[in-house]
Design brief:
CATH architecture of the domain at 24-86: Orthogonal Bundle
CATH class of the domain at 24-86: Mainly Alpha
Largest sheet: none
CATH topology of the domain at 24-86: 434 Repressor (Amino-terminal Domain)
Shape: globular
């Protein structure tokens, strides 16, 4: 029996609810993880520290993504999409 990460399942479910009306082609056609990260990061309109806090990671972790030293995980990208879509909830 395979155990699934409940956090990842929750993020997937929330993402599906928020993006249900968007064509799947838009979600599937990503140039790269970094270009998607850059679009999502800019789309939030949050300062670096605010973005790190919303993501639940350190400022240094976000800088790793900014400088393309490490890639955000699939789960982190899903959370970024949710933050961008629901930005007013953070303010």
């Amino acid at each position: 029996m395979e155990l699934k990460d409940p956090g990842a399942e929750l993020l997937t479910s929330l993402e599906q609810m928020i993006f249900k009306d968007m064509p799947q082609a838009n979600l599937a056609n990503r140039n790269s993880i970094f270009s998607e990260y850059e679009q999502l990061r800019q789309g939030t309109g949050l300062q670096l520290d605010e973005f790190a806090s919303a993501m639940g990671v350190t400022r240094a972790h976000v800088l790793e993504w900014e400088e393309r030293r490490t890639q955000p995980s699939t789960t982190e990208l899903k959370l970024m999409r949710l933050i961008q879509a629901k930005k007013p909830l953070l303010q």
